[in-house]
Amino acid sequence: MNVCFAPRPVVFDLDGTLIDSAPDIHACVNTVLRMNGTRPLTLDQVRSFIGGGVDLLWRRVIAATGLPVEAHRDLVASFMTRYHQATALTRLYPHVLETLGILSDRGYPLGICTNKPLGPTHTVLEHFGIGQLFGTVIGGDSLPQKKPDPAPLRAAFAALGADPAAPRGIFVGDSEFDVETARNLGVPMLLFLRGYRKTAPEDLLHRASFDDFAQLPLLVEEVAAI
After folding, report:
1. What are 195-212's pLDDT values in tens digits?
2. Same domain, residue pair 77 and 169
3. Rounded to whole angstroms, what are the CA distances from 141 to 58, 80, 165, 199?
4. Which residue is catalytic, options 13, 20, 24, 178?
5. pLDDT in tens, 62-106
6. In the prediction, which pLDDT does 147 show?
7. Does the annotation flag 203 for ligand binding?
8. Does the annotation place 20 within a ligand binding site?
9. 3 state SS of 124
10. Are residues 60 and 102 in the same domain?
11. At a CB cut-off of 8 Å and minimum separation 6, what does 41 contact?
């Protein structure tokens, strides 16, 4: 039986790629730290901790502040009660909305694959009115695995109609986690340069890079044509 798969889907990371959420994450972290009598962290410190999900964020916060490791679960729980609705300080990067509309109009199935928990992910997508643009949303708690394991990205591509055994999709992200995820799945990576990356772009494997979302539709067209 012949199986028809969708045109090349485009899957996006969220934090540091479509949105700059570091100020909200920073505010939530420092609220919890103040409640525990601990000095606050700077925005740059917290931004450098983002990417591997909430558990890894708080392992890094604990290491930076000297809080007891055994408090990890309670700290995460306290953080999550605030993080679920934290949108006041988050912003879309410039031209994201227009670019998502262009790609959708051109027939590219769009999805999200993030290590952000699914609840806060849906909250922020709806806050910006862009949730309906995505055919699938895979959060950090949607599967047992998180990025850079390829399973979440594979699931996102499959939900958008790609062959799960050999997805011919495009992944757009900003971080070392995203680059490694794309490499582990064997799909082309488009690297957004204004996110939370800590490594020089030339030291990361990617098909192309960009610092303005207005550049992305042409890059997607070029990769899709290969």
Report:
1. 999 999 999 999 999 999
2. no
3. 16, 13, 22, 26
4. 13
5. 999 999 999 999 999 999 999 999 999 999 999 999 999 999 999
6. 97
7. no
8. no
9. helix
10. no
11. 26, 29, 30, 33, 61, 64, 65
Query: Given the DSSP bridges, would you call strands 208-210 and 136-138 parallel, antiparallel or unpaired?
Result: unpaired
What distance in Å separates the CA atoms of residue 87 and residue 212, rounded to the nearest whole number? 22
Q: Are residues 162 and 73 in the same domain?
A: no
State phi, psi for 53 to the nearest 5 degrees. 100, 170
Name the amino acid, one letter, at 15. Answer: D
d(CA 198, CA 201): 9
What integer pLDDT is reported at residue 6 of this predicted model?
58
Q: In this structure, is residue 72 part of a structural domain?
A: yes
Please check whether residue 91 is in contact with residue 194, taking contact to mean a CB–CB distance below 8 angstroms: no
Closest CA to 181 of 224, 216, 210, 143: 143
Annotation says 13 is catalytic: yes
Q: How far does the chain reach from its first CA to its final CA, in angstroms?
A: 26
pLDDT one-digit tens code per residue, 169-184: 999 999 999 999 999 9
Q: According to the annotation, is 15 in a ligand binding site?
A: yes
Domain of 58 in residue numbering reads as 22-83
Which one-letter amino acid corresponds to residue 134? F
Q: Give the per-residue pLDDT at 5.
A: 53
Beta-strand relationship, 208-210 and 10-12: unpaired
